[in-house]
Amino acid sequence: MIRSPRRLVAAAVSIAAGTALLASTASPAVTSAAPGTSLVSSTSTGAQSADIVVHSASMNRNIPLSVLLPKNRDKPAGVLYLLNGAGGGEDSASWQAKTDIKKFFANKNVYVITPMQGAYTYYTDWVNADKKLGVNKWSTFLGKELPSVVDSTYKTNGKNSIAGISSSATSVLNLAIEHKGLYKSVGSYSGCASSSSDMGMMYIRMVVKSRGGADPENMWGPYEGGQWKEHDPIVNAAKLKGLSLYLSAATGVPGKYDTPAYTPDPDTLSDQIVVGGTIEAATRVCTEMLASKLADLHIPATVDRPAAGSHSWHYWQDQLHKSWPQLARSIGA
């Protein structure tokens, strides 16, 4: 049983302290964009995969993304926007590097789009530029700029889903709230949606300040200000009505992947059990809070509660597999 979420997160802190697609053989260089537009370039990385670059007008920079293509590209297909965690795919911790998504989606008719940038930003629109992380308008990019580029470039059916892990498990809920009607479903794995509570703010400081070296108040303003509540999916849970919701978090108790058989490096395994276990226990508390609020509002949600497991990739791969049938139904995949 989880006794003190604030103490658990504090322990973790101390430990962890439109446009046209260029040919697939084209160079990844992006030509200059007209004001207010986004251009795409693409380099094929396999029969069903590509690395693309989209110019974000709101951030005035080029954003790299990974794309998995449908098995059958003759018919329109839905889109799954799949977000990386705190590192934004800029480090080695990404869906592409840590999971089987390329194999898993090889026989499925869906576009899978993953930004490979956005570390420690929570994929939100920051109120101020940050000395460390610069200008961040990720909600604008993901919710307004990118979908129009994707839909005009690929043969999509206009139906979107979004999923994310850890810090991005909060982001996907906020993105669905902010861009009503854009997504049909949301997968939120091991997140802390209680972003305006003491516990939630502590978790965000761990990601943005302790790991990213940035100022969290540049994200949503002063801690006591209204923007923190505006970006709290539990406070705004009523706005999730109508979405197909999948939530998951384990207990932090070591599970089958927290063993040398799956994580042979002793230092990595130790961090996974101690740090990853502590963080996962805290996200379980947050997930139960959101599940309870949704239940009070009579908003349906699938909530998966594994009895064991840490805050790590093998478990998130399992959750993607488990949630996929529900996400797929919502977008006609």
TrEMBL record:
Statement: the UniProt record of this protein carries the keyword Signal: yes
One GO MF term: acyltransferase activity, transferring groups other than amino-acyl groups
Keyword terms: Signal
Matching Pfam families: Esterase (PF00756)
Leader sequence residues: 1-22
Superkingdom as given in the UniProt entry: Bacteria
Protein name: Esterase
Species, as recorded: Gordonia phthalatica
Source species taxonomy: Bacteria, Bacillati, Actinomycetota, Actinomycetes, Mycobacteriales
